[in-house]
Amino acid sequence: MNVNSLTKVIGDYIVTLFDDSEGSEVVLSRKDLARKFGCVPSQINYVLRSRFSPEQGFLIQSQRGGHGFIRIMQLRFADCDEYAEHLEDLVGNVISEQDARKLLARLQERETITPRERLIAEVALRNQDENGRTLFDLPPYKRDTMRAELLKKILVSLAMF
Amino acid sequence: MNVNSLTKVIGDYIVTLFDDSEGSEVVLSRKDLARKFGCVPSQINYVLRSRFSPEQGFLIQSQRGGHGFIRIMQLRFADCDEYAEHLEDLVGNVISEQDARKLLARLQERETITPRERLIAEVALRNQDENGRTLFDLPPYKRDTMRAELLKKILVSLAMF
DNA sequence: AATTCTATTGACTTATTTTGACCTTGCCTT
DNA sequence: AAGGCAAGGTCAAAATAAGTCAATAGAATT
């Protein structure tokens, strides 16, 4: 009983391609990849959509027809200001509890933040949320904007470090 | 159900999983766990909410759908309750901005927390303070108690040495 | 005895992965 | 230039699994 979904396996494989190639881009063939993992080609699109989106720091370029290909490029940032800006875009003006947690998890997985840093952030966010709910009786939308504010402050402060 | 509520049994079981596993994380399936203990799946959520919260030093990451899972990470040593109590005393029910900052600085100097961790804590505290002042127009005393609460939650969640 | 906190349950909701049928694009051959 | 073939793209349904919420039940506290 395999605990990993095919999507994860393929996603991990693509990440190893990045490691091996040491460049910031990887080119692959949808058909071949699908055959390699014994799945339907559209599964590859799903992997790309769910694991290599611009949100997650990747850009994808592809070509159909005879000599089709899929190119995945990893975004890089010139300086910490640019990175901070990217983070602010990522969070936006409003963010749900779930999305905030997912973002923190992703950052931790990528070793942008440590588990302890993530823990502090989560505790701070939860605390604010709880106060908003119980003390000030704030509507969900207000809490979502306040969550975004706090999360941005935290992440941007770390980006500068 | 004094000593052996199902919740306690399941919580203890999860703790044994931590002992058995080498690392500081455990991955489980809500459905299987529920079946193992003959309860409804949502009971597992209750166990997690009540025993494995970030405030208690755990982080939870989960995924729905096919190959769904629940991953619990333990970020502090289980037996620091004593020290945690000490921290609660240290912070007290009320703490000024200056004292909070001094405490964080001291902890950082002692290398109990890293500079980045201190930064997150300060950002969170300042953010809460500012909201309290500008958004809710809270009196200083209230802000001092809320500051103490947040600081304690953060420090206790790390429960460090 | 009343209240309040903690636990249990289940109906309903949301999210993720997998699969396949059908669509679009573009090189290449005729 | 037309048509064929070889990519890749889209979309939606099915399968699977977790989350939420509120009603209830049970324990503990006052």
How are the SSEs placed, and which strands pair?
The structure is a homodimer of 161-residue chains.
Chain A: H1 6-21, E1 25-28, H2 30-36, H3 41-51, E2 58-63, E3 69-74, H4 80-91, H5 97-109, H6 115-135, H7 140-160
Antiparallel strand pairs in A: 1-3, 2-3
Helix pairs in contact in A: 1-3, 2-3, 4-7, 5-6, 6-7
Chain B binds a DNA duplex (30 and 30 nucleotides) through helix 3.
Count of helix runs of chain A = 7
What is the radius of gyration of chain A computed over CA atoms, rounded to a whole number of angstroms?
19 Å
Largest interface: A-B, 30 and 31 residues
What kind of assembly state do the chains in view correspond to?
A: homodimer
Taken in chain order, the helices and strands of chain A follow as HEHHEEHHHH
Would you report the number of β strands of chain A?
A: 3
Structural domain tally of chain A: 2
Biggest sheet of chain A: strands, sense, closure? 3 strands, antiparallel
**Residue windows where pLDDT falls under 50 for at least 5 positions of chain A:** none
Any idea what the shape of chain A is? elongated
Helix-residue proportion of chain A: 55-70%
Give the class of chain A from helix and strand content and strand pairing.
mainly alpha
Strand order in the sheet with the most strands of chain A = 1-3-2
